[in-house]
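Q: Give me the 3D complex with heme C.
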Amino acid sequence: MKKIIITTLICSGLLVAADRFSDMKNMEDALVEIQKGFLYTNKDMVKSGVKTLKENNKMDAHIDAVKSYLPKEKQNLFKNAIKEAKSINTNADVIMKSIEAKEYSKAHDSYAKILNSCTHCHLVVRNWK
Ligand code: HEC
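A: Here is the predicted complex, encoded as structure tokens.
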């Protein structure tokens, strides 16, 4: 009985980790699509990438992931990491609006800010390990 419970726990843990990983992978693919959209000046491609990005930028998953890496003495960094995750959505909205308004360089600036948010959270998280 114990074995079954433990196995179930391990499996569900792995499933959650795999899920989170695929969200991250989907966000990576979304960024590639957005960048391609800019390079080819293809609005629809940018918009489709932004949509995928927002769908996969799940706040609950981020909170769980960040918590699981967080040692007690670094609690203060939790807020920073989550702030980066939130600002991804804010900047994604700016891209959508700017693209519609044909403000391409503003849109591209927001893309760069999103990339900064990704790497910033990763740096913070890696430092905790
Ligand atoms: C709130 C923090 C946070 C933000 C913001 C974030 N990530 Fe992650 N990311 C993680 C964590 C934590 C992992 C480690 C995998 C896990 O345990 O789920 C990870 C892993 C990854 C991986 C797998 C490769 C690796 O290094 O392990 C990719 C790819 C990735 N993220 C892409 C992105 C992209 C693209 C963005 C921005 C659009 C982003 N992430 C934003 C926390 C974050």
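A quick observation: Residues 23-128 form a domain with the Four Helix Bundle (Hemerythrin (Met), subunit A) fold (CATH 1.20.120.10).
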